[in-house]
Amino acid sequence: MSSSGSLNPESDSFEGRPVFYIGQHDSTRTEALVDDQYTQVLNSGFRFVTAPITNQHFFNRVVDLHRAYLKEREQWTEQRGLTAAQPPNASLPGPVVPTLTDKDTELYPSNYIGSLAVYFSPWIDLCSSDPLISSISRQVLNLEAAYANFCGARTIVVPGPRNDDSSRGIAQYARAIREAMHVANRANIIIHMPMYREPGLDEKAETLSSIFNPGNGLKAKEKEIDLFSAWDSWNTIRSVCSYSMRLFVALRVPRRVPEKTLQERWFAEPLHYLTIGQDIFELNRAGHPSLSRNHQDLINRYMRLRSIPWLILCDVGPRPEELATRPDEMAAEFPSLAEASQALRESRRPHMPAMNAHVGYMRYLERQQPPFSAMETPALTSFQDWLQPPLQPLADNLESATYEVFEGDPVKYDRYETAITEAMVEWKELKKPTSTATPENPSNPELVVTVAGAGRGPLVTRALRAAESTGTPIQIWALEKNQDAYVYLLRKNKVEWGNKVTLVKTDMRGWEGPRLKGREDVIGKVDILVTELLGSFGDNELSPECLDGIQNHLARPHGMSIPHSYTAHLSPIATPRLFADISSRVVGDPNAFETPWVVRLFAIDYVAQKVPDHPRFQQAWEFAHPVEVARADDFAAEHGKAAKHVTGGVGSMAGASGTNEHNARHCHLTFVCPTRGVIHGLSGFFESVLYASQTGAGKEPVEISILPDQIDRKSKDMVSWFPIFFPLKKPLYFPQDTELEVSMWRQTDDTRVWYEWLVEVYAWVGPDTRIKVGTSDLHSSRKVACLM
């Protein structure tokens, strides 16, 4: 029977939610499942299972090999009369693990090998301080990696380090993983890590170290849990592996969910699996497994990633003894009435096992997730962490499809229309003169409105609508340099605007000004100038330079620009995915790490915390329009417009005239980081005041913002702009209680504009003393600068 409402895909009110892909892992399993057992697990509700690469026979063979070697070395020492204080010959050959045989594994190439998550032997110890054990472990790792790769496995899970105390051990482990990635060159390697070192969360299988060096396994003195030590180990591993796109993490969910800071740190990492053990579940009043609200919130948060992590339930059944019992085929074909009735109540066929209780609960949790919001449509989700080079609308003519994407955001144009409406209303209230006024008709109410950079005309439509709603007569001009978009505007003027708009094909900086109706011999002024030249960083698409070239047509002092002002903002972030992506592009694009990328940031961690005087998002600089003093106009008056690039002797860069120096900017910002971590670049945002009330009545300004902590208040659900990302060539690690000093410059040589950025790390070593512990290169986007 089909359901109704928001959970029924056939219903008009259906609300989409992330899909759970649930697998099963048995930590006691020593052999891969046979076909019948695999079918039983799938029939109990799981979608995939883990499979050990080798079996108990191989484990016993490796243990016997090492034991025989130790005995041989002891005999060798006795034969030469060496005392315990005399070390054996360092060149004595160590044990070599022979190749696998058919007795060592139950895993073979099959038609479902791709749906298995094969699991390395948990008894190896790559971190061991015993060089023999670490060598044997590395050999086993490579043997299993090679065989799994041969079988066609595409997902190989490696048990992570069991502690983080030994930097030597972690380095050994990381180096071994890098080697295994070369061996299994077609498979993804997933490191199974705990979210933090919660007692009892690690692998429980014995290791070679616990067998041969049990004294080393004595419990150390209990100490406070370091929440970030497991992440530190993971950071070392992936750094040694050069942020490989084939390296992922499987995250063990702890019984006690940690603070949000650590959750967000792991959220930014390349998650492949979330693993949930049986002891994480609690029994509800009805005796069924359930998860705490904190666990539910964590899962719901991680399920919002574009690459949704799969879920692995550990040790929740079916039990090995259940799988060992082959179902009676006769009983399955001819069930009793009681068996058939029970199967009907459980919505299954009589011969199939019942739905696993833990899987059933996870399916319930899947249905209870918050539905996708307006910002989580498939189209927008596809843009998560997808790098796009910034547009250069001055240098390039945009395609119609690009304009169409911009026009699909009603929020932006609603805010623009509100700003234009308020400007027109207050113009009347303040009784401002209009640019159409003449000595014969000094009270002419017609406003002169110009939309510069009209594109396909959405702002023209909104300006006409605002004029109609406020009863304001206007003369409106639309300027567009793109000859193809100009053709579209001509048609739109006839079909939609009733030829009310005067269209001019020109770069706004070369426009002569409006020739007023009825007085075409007179070049007038503009009362309201409307533009949508803002970029993801506010000024990165050269809005200041464009408005400098047209602001001389604004009527002074009452003429106004919409937008009135805009500010750029920065925050340092950790984003391993983007760093790995950019690293893979360097071969084809040497400037990839010095390109400011437009990207919908999602799987990121804002490493800075909000503290007094140092917010998480800090303003870099501001532009306001119109500019009261225009250097370009002064220069043209002195040298003529044709002498734009004549050196004026003002000390500007590259021997330029300095006419754009007033649009150069510099900022130096300090961000506070209480916890240790790593940054991969700077995230950039902007805010803009489209119109600020001039009546002094205490009205809120009309604003738009893409700042994460302001967008919901100022322009909720606006999607026209994604943030900008300024990458670092090398990840920059910082210890806890540090300050990140960010320096950024907006540079110009009168022909182009580019950015330069630098990050420094300072640690406090005393109440009044800081030391520098790290610094990035000085990055410059000059080679990919925005052309004026």
UniProtKB/TrEMBL annotation:
Residues annotated for S-adenosyl-L-methionine binding in this entry: Y403, K412, Y413, E480, D507, M508
Organism: Chaetomidium leptoderma
PRMT5 TIM barrel domain mapped to chain residues: 45-367
Cross-referenced SUPFAM superfamilies: S-adenosyl-L-methionine-dependent methyltransferases
PROSITE patterns recorded: SAM_MT_PRMT
Keywords carried by this UniProt record: Methyltransferase, S-adenosyl-L-methionine, Transferase
Site (Critical for specifying symmetric addition of methyl groups): F406
Residue intervals of the PRMT5 oligomerisation domain: 565-788
Keyword Amino-acid biosynthesis: no
Annotated GO biological process: methylation; regulation of DNA-templated transcription
Pfam families named among the record's database cross-references: PRMT5 (PF05185), PRMT5_C (PF17286), PRMT5_TIM (PF17285)
GO CC terms in record: cytosol; nucleus
PANTHER family associated with the record: PROTEIN ARGININE N-METHYLTRANSFERASE 5
Segments forming domain PRMT5 arginine-N-methyltransferase: 380-562
Listed name of the protein: Protein arginine N-methyltransferase
GO molecular function, one term: protein-arginine N-methyltransferase activity
Active site annotation, chain numbering: E532 (proton donor/acceptor), E541 (proton donor/acceptor)
Family of this protein: Belongs to the class I-like SAM-binding methyltransferase superfamily.
Listed InterPro entries: Arg_MeTrfase (IPR025799), Arg_MeTrfase_PRMT5 (IPR007857), PRMT5 (IPR035075), PRMT5_C (IPR035248), PRMT5_TIM (IPR035247), SAM-dependent_MTases_sf (IPR029063)
